[in-house]
Amino acid sequence: xSIKRHASAHWSGNLKEGKGTISSDSGxxxxxxxxxxxxxEDKNGTNPEELIGAAHAGCFAMAFAxxxxxxxxxxxxVSTKATVQLEEIDGGFKITRSDIDVTLDAPGADRSVIDxxxxxxxxxxxxxxxxxxxxxxxLTVK
Length: 142
Prior knowledge:
By secondary structure, the protein is of the alpha+beta class. It folds into two domains: 7-40, no CATH class; 48-141, K homology (KH) domain (GMP Synthetase, Chain A, domain 3). Helix content is 33%, strand content 36%. It is built from four helices and six strands. It has helices spanning 36-40, 48-70, 111-124, 126-130, and strands at 7-12, 19-24, 32-35, 77-89, 92-105, 134-141. The strands form two sheets. Strands 1-2-3 form a three-stranded antiparallel sheet. A three-stranded mixed sheet has the order 4-5-6, with helices on one face. The termini are far apart. The model has no long low-confidence stretch (mean pLDDT 93).
């Protein structure tokens, strides 16, 4: 099976004064504005790193829930938060890591089963595998 998803971006102008929009074919994003100030100055609006973080958090939550379910654990909640780090290196910028913090609510689940599912999700998350950056995943169990 091969699934293709599409997104697009448009940019006008130079880096500092220019403006762009990001859209996805699904319509979840439709001409969302972004610019230097939303990426490098923490102004309101989106940016590529935030979108990578959203994709990573969503993918890992699904992967972990799938691995848990394959071991007969149906979680009440898998919550994830991604922190994508962009650093200036040698005059350019590079995404150097993506950290995923996971909180699991699965009352009565055996910790060894949780850990086995967590490791499988950590190894198998498609977005984790797609990133060419250090990926660190942590788990908090309620």
